[in-house]
Amino acid sequence: MVANKLLNLQETCGAAPLGTKKSTSSDSPEGAGPVIRQVREHNELNGVVFSVVEFLLVAAAAAFVAFAFALHGDWLVAALVAGTALNALVVVAYGIAALRRGERGKSLRSLTRPEYRAAVRDEHPGLTRDTVTVTVTTLIPYILSIAVVAERLREGG
Q1: Second label for 17, Cα 20 to 30 Å away, from 50, 74, 98, 102?
Q2: CA nearest 134: which of 59, 34, 47, 57?
Q3: pLDDT tens-digit profile of 43-88?
Q4: Closest CA to 129 of 42, 11, 22, 10
Q5: Would 12 be classed as within a structural domain?
């Protein structure tokens, strides 16, 4: 059930069904809105698999905390923490969509090379700001999810 919901979210994020290519204005980072572009760029530069695993762990931890608060009857806090889990799943969904399109991003090993880091700094001067934006919008309940949905609606789908 969770896998089906994640796949539905993935399709909403622009992934094509297996074996097909769906063309949307947000298929490339240049055609996407600013939030979607930041998420995709984050996934690419950090490695798609690494980003998926990283944000799955955040989602799992947040879901566990939300469940614990719900068990104790603190529904407001549980709902807020669930928003963080949902935000993390947005990043995961874009990562899975990228993997289905055959995109891998950079390897984790390349991040350890000083020449690679220098090249990334030169090519992406706003990377630190973008990374902070993705991180903060993931931690603020529902904000990343709302921003992505708003961008998708502005794009027409």
Answers
A1: 50
A2: 34
A3: 998 899 999 999 999 999 999 999 999 999 999 999 999 999 999 9
A4: 42
A5: no
Residues in the chain: 157
Residue 94: which of 1, 15, 3 has the closest Cα? 15
Q: How far apart are CA 64 and CA 61, in angstroms?
A: 5
Determine, yes or no, domain membership for 8: no
Please give the distance of CA 38 from its chain centroid, rounded to a whole number.
9
Longest dimension (CA), the chain: 52
- The reply to whether 65 falls in a domain is yes
Phi, psi dihedrals of residue 102, rounded to the nearest 5°: 90, 10
Q: Is the dihedral of CA 57, 14, 79, 1 positive or negative?
A: negative
- Its pTM stands at 0.76
Range of the domain at 57: 29-155
In sequence order, what are the residues at sequence separation of 6 or more whose Cβ sits closer than 8 angstroms to the Cβ of residue 18?
100
Contact 62, 88 (CB under 8 A): yes
Number of structural domains found in the chain: 1
At position 2, the amino acid (one-letter code) is V
